[in-house]
Amino acid sequence: MPLTAADAPALLAPLDDEQRAVAEAVRGPVCVVAGAGTGKTRAITHRVAHAVAVGATAEEHVLAVTFTARAAGEMRERLRALGTPRVAARTFHASALRQLQHFWPAVVGGPPPALLEHKAAVVAEAASRLGLRPDRAVVRDLSAELEWAKVGLLTPATYEAAALRAGRGDVAGQEAAVVARLLEAYEDAKTARGVVDFEDVLLLTVAMLRERDDVARQVRARYRWFTVDEYQDVSAAQQALLDAWVGDRDDVCVVGDPNQTIYTFAGADASLLGGFAAAHPGSTTVHLVRNYRSRPPVVALGNGVLGRGAGPAAGPSLRAVRPDTDDARPAGLPTSPTFTEHDDDVAEAEGVASRVRAALAAGVTAARVAVLVRTNGQLEVLEEALADAGVPYVVRGGERFFARREVREALLLLRGAAKAEVPEAAGGLVGQVEDVLSTAGWSPEPPAGRGQVRDRWESLAAVVDHARRLHAEAPGARLPDLVRDLEARAAAQHAPALDGVTLATLHSAKGLEWDVVLLPGLAEGLVPISMATTPEEVEEERRLLYVGVTRAREAVHLSWARARTPGGRGSRRPSRFLDAVRPAPDGAGAGAGRSARPVSRPSGPRASRPAL
C-alpha cells in the first residue's frame, strides 16, 4: 500500500534526534554532515520515505544518487522495506547512461556508441601515436591522469596549466605538456573506434541536458527531488550533471563527511560539501555525530588519529553510543586497540595471520574480519601468510564481480542446467550448484598459492556460498530461483560475498565495516605514502587511516615493520599519525588506545617461525 501521513510517526520513531531532523527536512536544500558509523543511510532512506508519506514528493520523482553499485543496491533494499520500492537509487554513471541511451537516437540519431569498459588499450594506442612506448604500469598511471582531467572538466587546451597548479607536472615520467597532447590523441583514438568512456557518459549527458531544452524538460519532469550520498567525493563533472538535473529547483539533499575525503587525487572536490550552505542560502544543515558502529575505544582512536590535523573544513568529532562492555561481543577479543612493532614485513604478515586466527578462535566469522593496507603491493606477503595459516581469504577490488569471465561462464552453466531441469543432486540446491560449477573449476577446498587460479576459485566459491544462503533463507528454492536471483544481482551489480577474511586497500574499504580490522604497514613512507609531499596530501593520508580505523566494530589492530625483508636494516619508523595515539614504548603513554607494550618478533629465516 502507498505510504500516507498516518505512516509518518512510525517512520520517525527509530531515529535519534539528529537523524529525525534529517528525515523531517523534506523541502529545500539540505546538507547532512554525517560522521563514520552515524547511521546516515538510515537517516536518508527514512527521509525519502517520510517525504513520500507526508506528500512532499512522489516516490517516482525521487533520484537517490550513490557512488557504488553496492551502495545503490543497499539503498534500494532499504527503501523497498520502508514502502517506497519505486524510488530510483543509482550511481551517477548508471543514471547518466540510462538517460544518454534513451535520448541518443532522438538527439544524435542511430544507436548510442559502445561503452569502453577498459581504456588501457586506447591509451596505449594514443601514446604510440606520440612516439611513446609506455609499459603496463605507466599506461595505468596515464589512464588515471586522463580520468582526473576529464572529471575536472579539463580539455587538452586547459590541462597543462591546471595540472601544474595542482602539482601534477610529472605523471609517470611525462611532463604536463605531453599528457595534454596524450589527452587529445586519446580522444581522437576513441572517436575513431566509435566508443565513449565512463567520463564521456557524464559529459555527454550534461551537454545533452544543457543544449536540448526538450530533453531537460523531460528529465526534470521525471526527477524532482534529489539525494546525493558521499558528496565529499563529487567531481566537477558530477556536480555539473547534478546541476543539470536540478535546474532552477532546490529540493536537493547532499550527504557527506569531510573527515572521509580520500579521493581528491582522483578529482573529487571536497570544497563542494564545505561550500554547500553558502551556495544555497537558507539551506538546512544537520550534523550526525553519534557513532553506532564501533566500541568507544575504537571511536576514541579514530578521533585521536584525526586530532587537529584534519584541516579547517574537518567535521566534528564522533561520540560513541555503544557501551564499552557488551555481552554480545566475543570474549576473546582485546578491549583496546593494539599497537605492534615487527622486525620485517614477513614477520608482520605472520603476526597478522596469528591475530586473525585468534579472532576466529574467539568466535568471529572470517567474513567479519578485514586486513586493510595502503597499496596493492602489500597484499602478496599477507596472502601467503594467511594461506600458510589455513585462513580463508578473499581479495577485494579489481574487476567487478559480474564482469569476471568465470562468473559469466558460471551463470551460463547454471542457466543451462536450470532450463534442462537437471535432477537435484544429493545436497539439494547447493549440491546441484556444486556439481555444475565443478566443471568450471570449483572444488571444496581452495587451490594452493595465489594468482589467477585462486581468483577464479574465489569467484565460483562466492556463487556456491550464495546458493547456501539462498537455501537457508528459502529451503524450497530451486536452481531457476538461484539463477533469477543472480541475474537480478548482476543487473544491480550487487555481488554475493565469499566467507573469507577480506584483504583490501584502505581506499576500497570505504563504506564497509567489519567486527575486527587489522591495519598493517603503518610505517612512514607507506602511511603517509612517500608520494604525499604537500600538507594537503599528507592530511588526506591521515583521513585515509581514519577511514581504516572506523571500519571496525569491535577491535582494531595496528602494526608496522622496521624493515622490509628478514635481516634487512631496520630503518623504518612508525607512522607520524600514531604519535598521539599509541602508548609509549615503556607502556606509560597516554594514547587513545592503550594496549600492552608493543612487541616484535626476532628476525630469522621463515623456516624457524613459531607455529601459529
Give the helix level as a range of percent.
Answer: 40-55%
> What assembly state would you assign to the polypeptide chains in this entry?
single chain
Q: What value does the average pLDDT take?
A: 88
Give the CA-CA distance, first to last residue. 56 Å
Class based on secondary structure composition and strand pairing: alpha/beta
DSSP E strands, number: 18
Strand content: 5-15%
> What would the principal axes of the Cα set say about the shape?
globular
Spatial strand arrangement across the major sheet: 3-2-8-9-1-10
> Mind describing the biggest β-sheet?
6 strands, parallel
What are the low-pLDDT stretches, counting only 5+ consecutive residues below 50? Answer: 587-612
Cα gyration radius (Å): 25 Å
Q: Note the total helix count.
A: 22
